[in-house]
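Severity: low
Component: inverse-folding endpoint
Summary: output formatting inconsistent between runs
Steps to reproduce: submit the following structure tokens with default settings.
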């Protein structure tokens, strides 16, 4: 979609700046400095890594209302969802967030710390493994044989 982006930048007369690819360190710094991250994906994402990276930096997210990214955002707390493909809905959410972004920054960071750090993911994974082992153990227990009289 590079051509479409170039055309949008040209027609916006200075209101849009296209940065292109950036090194991850620079991209993360920019996300942390942003008021909000707008993630208007049309695809049904399997996991919203960009949303989690944004939360890690304390940056609230506006994302389309379908896919995993929508499930990660708590509307009005860590960001907003908007109707996928609806520019007016997106614009309304951006306007709405402008006044709430400062409050949402701390909520986005708290959500990251609560659910997505490496330590928390390790604990969650170990919990899943333990439940599987417990379930396996309970299904493998055979009844004691009845002794003949």
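Observed output (run 2 of 3):
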């Amino acid at each position: 979609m590079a051509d479409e982006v170039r055309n949008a930048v040209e027609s916006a007369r200075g209101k849009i700046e296209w940065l292109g690819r950036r090194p991850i360190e620079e991209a993360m710094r920019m996300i942390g400095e942003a008021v909000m991250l707008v993630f208007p994906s049309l695809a049904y994402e399997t996991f919203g890594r960009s949303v989690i990276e944004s939360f890690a930096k304390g940056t609230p997210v506006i994302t389309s209302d379908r896919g995993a990214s929508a499930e990660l955002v708590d509307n009005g707390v860590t960001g907003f969802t908007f109707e996928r493909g609806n520019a007016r809905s997106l614009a309304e959410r951006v306007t709405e967030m402008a006044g709430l972004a400062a409050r949402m920054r701390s909520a986005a960071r708290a959500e990251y710390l609560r659910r997505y750090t490496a330590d928390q993911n390790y604990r969650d994974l170990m919990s899943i493994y333990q439940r599987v082992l417990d379930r396996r153990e309970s299904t493998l227990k055979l009844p004691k044989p009845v002794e003949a009289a």
